[in-house]
Design a protein that fits this description.
- Helices cover 48% and strands 15% of the residues.
- With 196 residues, it is α+β, with helices and mostly antiparallel strands.
- It has 2 domains: 50 residues, no CATH class; 111 residues, no CATH class.
- The longest helix has 45 residues.
- It is rod-shaped.
- The N and C termini lie far apart (97 Å).
């Protein structure tokens, strides 16, 4: 087969065939190429049969990549939403703690009513007590968050209530797989509210 192709190339290079036989030469070249690629060999193969499985491989790889991408995006979105829920809870606790002044702390030294220029002050104990009371009175405020803990509840200046929370979140779609070696991801939130 190779020698026949070499002979055709030599004839064509030397110009032994005239312009009339150029079409015949091109047909002969096409037949020889067909034989080299499996056409007309009698084994039942057609040109391109060697590439037939490649599109299926590429399609399955693309589908696997798309599913992996969807899993990552959905899981990251779920963790982001858990973090936003924790921030909302921290905001609610800080607001409740900022309003936690008792009458005893409001009327310092037994004054019957506040006077102009008087200073209101928050106390750490009052803030911690109010945060605990709010969580006990509103168990639904935690929602779908897991292992919510109050890291700190205090006042840095007597006027601002600061609440720090931590919770555990797990990736939404891969939590069954990751729970074998991971307890989840810790998310944190801090919020502050002014009493006056």
């Amino acid at each position: 087969m190779t020698t026949e192709l070499e002979r055709v190339k030599r004839i064509h290079r030397n110009g032994e065939l005239g312009p009339v036989r150029t079409g015949l030469l091109q047909r002969l070249r096409g037949r020889l190429r067909g034989r080299l690629h499996g056409e007309g060999t009698g084994d039942g193969t057609r040109p391109g049969d060697g590439e037939r499985g490649q599109i299926m491989l590429m399609t399955s790889a693309f589908v696997a990549f798309a599913l992996l991408l969807i899993t990552v995006v959905v899981s990251a979105t779920g963790m982001h939403l858990d973090r936003k829920r924790l921030y909302n809870l921290a905001d609610a606790l800080a607001l409740a703690a900022a309003d936690s002044m008792t009458q005893e702390s409001f009327y310092v030294e037994g004054l019957p009513e506040p006077t102009e220029g008087a200073v209101l002050s928050l106390a750490d104990a009052e803030i911690r007590a109010e945060v605990g009371a709010y969580l006990a009175a509103n168990p639904g405020a935690v929602g779908s968050l897991r292992d919510v803990t109050v890291v700190s509840a205090s006042t840095p200046d007597g006027r601002t209530a600061t609440v720090s929370l931590a919770a555990r979140t797990r990736p939404t779609l891969v939590s069954r797989v990751t729970e074998l070696w991971s307890d989840g991801i810790i998310v944190r939130a801090e919020s502050s509210a002014r009493a006056w």
